[in-house]
């Protein structure tokens, strides 16, 4: 069976440290976590990050638990923001052994997108990392698989790879037929979750933060995974924030892991 990674927003208890310990306990060897985080509407961090002061301790934690990082988040291309400001968080991700840095494209000016994304790719390449390009309905500079493929071709950076998030694929109008036409080598990773329907939308934040366990919804996940090469990392990204303080994130994550393993079988 292919290795699976667990995304931090699927198992939120204990932040990145809790994620690594839980992944090891669940017999997973890969995680996706934050070394930089977006801010919420009140300018507060949305997610716990690995702090630079914890680097040495966290390196030991990863080694002791035989866990590695496939994706470090979150490094978006934003209007009026220079990606050089991500240098410290990118360097920390690289020092922790992260395979790639994740970006969304919120900038809409084509020239600036090209400049900033190329610069981010160069920064990551100098650190030995890929850049994962996630298209989402919320990031207007790259809000479909078609735009991601065109941007990947235009930028033409060897370490730039496209991400296929099941929710974003189907909520932005993507199809399996469209995915079949994409060069498999341009895809770096995929994110597994489920959803109740195939409604196209650019306003699905509530659903994005409260996804369904794989196999419990309508998404053709087996067929999607079958279209991806063996080199593509698979990430369990099934956040659930609707239940508030009474929600047991560990039990939820165990359900998501078990369902994802069954999907691969």
Automatic annotation (TrEMBL):
**Residue ranges of domain Xylose isomerase-like TIM barrel in the record:** 51-260
One Pfam family name is AP_endonuc_2
Q: Can you tell me which residues the record assigns to a coiled coil?
A: none
InterPro entries reported in the protein's UniProt record: IolE/XylAMocC-like, Xyl_isomerase-like_sf, Xyl_isomerase-like_TIM-brl
Designated name of the protein: TIM barrel protein
Q: Which organism is it from?
A: Parasphingorhabdus litoris
